[in-house]
Amino acid sequence: MLRKLNLKFLIYGCWLFCSILPVLSLSCFAEESSTINLTQELKKGNFLIGLKQYLGAKNDNFPEKNDITFTSKNDFLKLYSTNGIRHKSKKINVVFKKKTLKTPFTVERLVFGPFASYESAKKQAEKIKEKGYQALVAFPNNWEVWVPFGKNLPDKKLNYRLFKKSYKTTITPFLVTEYSQHELQGPIYISSSEEIQINDINFGKKFYLAKDSYGTWTLIQKIKFDDYLKGVLPHEIGSNSPLEALKAQAVIARTWALYNSDRFKIDKYHLCITTQCQVYKPPVIKYKNVHKAIEDTSNLIITYKKKPINSFYHGSNGGISAIASESWQIKDYRYLNSMIDGLNSLNQVFKLPIKSGDELNKFLEFANEKVYGTNHYLFRWEKIISNEKIQNNLLNNQLIEEKSDLVDLNIIDRGFSGRVTKLEIKLKNLKKPIVLVKDDIRRILSFLPSNLFTINKLNNNLWLFKGGGFGHGVGLSQSGAIEMAELGFTYEQILKHYYKGTKIKKIEISSQ
Question: Cis peptide leading into 187, omega within 30 of 0?
Fold first, then answer.
């Protein structure tokens, strides 16, 4: 739990921070969070999923989303608003409008970031808290850390910027019918005994509309753990994967969701539906093996020392798994190890750590059925990239103000698995080179499938990036798990291979 806020913090940060304190009812954008209890929902076996974020927004960061429509075929929809509005219908249309405030207000805060991942943002927030400041992770467009503005500011070396904005209007939802419209207050509950269509797509039966920490709104689905997984597995590992691989994915997806359930705490829901979390889409087709995998592993999670693990997974590790600190600026976990991902005999052929480009090239050129996951389309890859492409990426991420001749690319450091952890970019008009670290490498140079690569200069304009794998390389490799399942390994054996020293345990769900 967060520490109690002092008076100065309340004055400068009310609008931002009251959205995460369910015991308070303050007059600000997110006061309705007082009736959404994230912890209790988890105990009951429910996830709150942010289906549609930033509703009502109209600015440079977010597309305009002014309305949302709920429909049902047979049963009535029921809408309950915090200000007492109740409505029954087979069609409900909620429109977001700007409403002028009687008393305008100004928000000030310090912003750290953007960060390439939640993990790096969370680590920065922990560092700031250690120095005695309040800090929260937010996702207005990219991952950021927010600190309330005050007299005693953190050291400028921590690289933050001041955000200051005055608000004269607020985004307000209205229930619009054929004959009338009614102002609503959040959270707004919408439910039915049958599947509800949202903008013509079937989703589920229970939803919230709640205001977030950016002044916009989120459509939140309340969904049982296993029903959530039915919308995750087909889009993460694929519905055609072998049954034992699907079972392994079900267990790690459930574990990951529980471990990361505070990811959007500031906005009153657990998880999103994009690659910032786990990809989720409402299941349109009932896949027999997907359902069987979920049912056979229902409520099973992976634990280490009796606690859920941070069960990272990815598409392909290119034949070598990474430790967590290679990919993000976070601590390492004892159950996540760097290893040659294949038969034990491979350890006699290749030794870790891999510290040079020559060593990595030898591994990348090695083709052997003893390595797991070779069927992935990015198990090995090559990218020929121009100077202009690199400069455009730097411009788009505001690391340079104008184009400048690219002088050199240097790999400064590699992690234990050979992944690039520091990359230096030298430009003609810059006094100091740009140094990209860990997950920022792939965030900025978005054409790279992974950090497991070497670089060769082809000429004054072109660079050859030669690498392997897709994703961060930490934890379970989905392509590796698929191949292990095809070879006859059980899901328990697959999980123990990728998460050393862990146990599989059943969680208890409260019936209250």
Answer: yes
Last-in-domain residue among 199, 224, 249: 224
Domain presence at residue 512: no
How many Å is the maximal CA-CA distance in the chain? 77
Among 473, 491, 124, 121, which Cα is nearest to 318's?
473
The answer on 407 and 273 residing in a single domain is: no
For 103-117, the three-class secondary structure string (H helix, E strand, C coil) is EEEEEEEEEEEEECC
CB atoms within 10 A of CB 232: 25
Q: Helix count (H) and strand count (E) of the chain? A: 13, 23
Q: For residues 216 and 139, what is the distance between their CA atoms, to the nearest angstrom?
A: 12
**Spatial separation of the C-alpha atoms in residues 93 and 9, rounded to whole Å:** 38
- What pairing do the DSSP bridges indicate for beta strands 217-224 and 434-437? unpaired
Lookup: tokens for 325: 């600190």
**53 in Cβ contact with 43 (< 8 Å):** no
Residues 6+ apart with CB under 8 A from 106: 164, 165, 166, 167
User: Coil, strand or helix: which one is 349?
Assistant: coil
pLDDT in tens, 263-277: 999 999 999 999 999
Residue 240 pLDDT exceeds 80: yes
Q: Give the 3-state secondary structure percentages of the chain, helix then strand then coil, rounded to 5.
A: 25, 35, 40
pLDDT level of residue 367 (50, 70, 90 thresholds): low
Closest by CA position to 4, among listed 110, 131, 130, 134: 134
Mark whether 240 and 304 lie in a shared domain: yes
Domain membership of residue 378 as a residue range: 313-474
Domain boundary among 164, 199, 224: 224
